[in-house]
Amino acid sequence: MAGATQDFSQFDISKEEIDKLVAEVVRYVLFKTHQNSGCPIKREELVQLVTKNYSQRALPAHVINAAKEKLSNAFGYELRELLRCRPSSATQGRSTQQTGVAEAKSYVLISQLPAEVYKKYVEDENSAHLSGFTFVVISIVHLAGGKIPEDILWRHLKRMGLCETDASHPVFGNAKQALETLVQQRYLQKDKVNGPEGNTLFYELAERALDGPVSEKMKEYISEAFKLM
Amino acid sequence: MPSLNWKHHALVQALMTRGPLKEKDFHAIFSGLTGKSPGAHQGLFNEYLLNINKELSSCQFELRACRDQYVGQVCYGVVNNVADEQSKLGTKYTVQQIAFFKGILEAIAQDVIAQGSISNIEALNIRLENQVLSTQGSQLLNGPLPAAFRNFTMSQKEKTLDEFVQDQWLCCTPDGKIGLGVRSCLDLRGWFRNLDVPFCEVCNEAVVKGEILCPRCGLKWQNQLPKAEILDEEEEANDAIQSQPAQRPKRKRTKTNETHEKDAVGCGSSQSSVPNSDFRRITRSSSRPASQRCSIDRWNWNMG
């Protein structure tokens, strides 16, 4: 079970122990993804599953790679690695090397099924409204150049029937919380910018929305939507 | 390990994303993916499930089917087989809600006449302080109950009941009561064993809603529960079944879990007015005319 392509012979650990570690990581990823509604899981959390009992330096990386293989082979999920991006105001004029801070890695589960198969057999229609909301919001932010003031974003959402003050929307419940969920899921991030009129809160695209496949699909759908207009 | 392809993955992901599926829906997915119906290609269908389970078992998951004991419908689901630290992440319920759920399950499972359901009022009157919880390594011991448990209001219980039904841990039975949901039937088999719930000798499902049959002639017991009788001493010595009055008989099933037949030995709950009766239970969905299933050496009877 310990990944076919992973070589664990360098570690003085039995195959059973390796298999147990890999299973723990796989189970952690699956249950945590369910618990936090798809929010990215920090790499550090997975590393700790290994280092709490084992001190070999390279072991966590091997176990995480083996867990990636297992998730792909058994479940058809890709354990996609994301690099946490910082708000644009925090990185202006500085490179990553200059900040001296390693960017944190995190993981999300992505289905590897063909899109039409996923849509036909797997997609849960009870959560379709959330996918729709996510798409609309990140499209608005994308069309605004990747960053948009909070009040402008809500102005656009209000035109589509969702107000910032809605606490009991029939579909989304608390509207502010629904938007906050996109921040927790790392589709968006918040940035406070000092301006002549005081602090302004901006929403900008975060690593999940900027990730290649998501970004490409979003641009494709937006251009289709424009063609229909 | 067999290698799974995208069709296997679609079956697994469908269950994991959409939750337990009724047999007709799961079969429809299989037919759509493979072009073959499970009914006409049972061998292929079984092979798919077997290969999926060979992969899932390494992570302590299982693709399983169970039969709804209220309407007889078969459902499929992916279930977790081990209660470890990771699986504790898999719940969105609070400690109080879990205690409430346990109380409801026990009330249903320990119903001596195996109705398989309790009324809404009975569910709302479940007292959390009767539950001893083990949560994250700490135990709620004897002593003052945390305020959160004492203050779990009726309104919170009502809301929680609705959530349980919506999430399919509980269900509303056709007669308007609260019964076990399909998720409970799929997921909690091990817990039913720990609670000494008898298992049907025909379908090997936990008998939550069943019929009490006379172990000698197989006829349905119509009126009151029988009293236990003491069989010969050799049986008692061999089986460790307690036949003392007011004690809960120990089932053979707890001694050895190897055979399905022994799992079928039913027993009255300790709250029963006839505490040491032993009777057979089968689930309603698998009831058949009794034939030669009676085996005198399995049961303890008291005939008044």
Return the structural class of chain B: alpha+beta
Helix content of chain B: 25-40%
Mean pLDDT, all residues of chain B: 70
Number of strands of chain B: 11
How do the helices and strands follow one another from N- to C-terminus of chain A? HEHHEHHEHHEHHEEHH
- N-to-C CA distance of chain B: 58 Å
Assembly form of the protein: heterodimer
Helical stretch count of chain B? 12
Q: Can you list the strand order of the major beta sheet of chain B?
A: 1-3-2
β-strand percent of chain B reads: 5-15%
Largest sheet of chain A: 3 strands, antiparallel
Number of helical elements of chain A: 11
Computed structural class of chain A: alpha+beta
Spatial strand sequence of the major β-sheet of chain A:
1-3-2
Largest interface: A-B, 29 and 30 residues
Rg calc of chain A: 20 Å
How helix-rich are the residues of chain A, as a percent range?
Answer: 40-55%
Unreliable parts of chain A: 96-101
Global geometry of chain B? globular
Protein name (chain B): Non-structural maintenance of chromosomes element 1-like
Organism (chain B): Citrus sinensis (Sweet orange)
Protein name (chain A): MAGE domain-containing protein
Organism (chain A): Citrus sinensis (Sweet orange)
Helix/strand layout:
The complex is a heterodimer of chains A (229) and B (304).
Chain A: H1 15-35, E1 41-42, H2 43-51, H3 59-75, E2 77-83, H4 88-91, H5 96-99, E3 105-111, H6 115-122, H7 128-143, E4 147-149, H8 150-159, H9 175-184, E5 188-195, E6 198-205, H10 207-210, H11 212-228
Helix pairs in contact in A: 1-3, 2-3
Chain B: H1 6-18, E1 21-22, H2 23-34, H3 42-56, E2 61-67, E3 74-80, H4 95-109, E4 117-118, H5 120-124, E5 134-135, E6 138-139, H6 147-150, H7 154-166, E7 170-172, E8 178-180, H8 182-187, H9 189-194, E9 210-213, H10 233-239, H11 252-255, H12 260-263, E10 265-267, E11 278-283
Antiparallel strand pairs in B: 1-3, 2-3, 4-8, 5-6, 7-8, 9-11, 10-11
Helix pairs in contact in B: 1-2
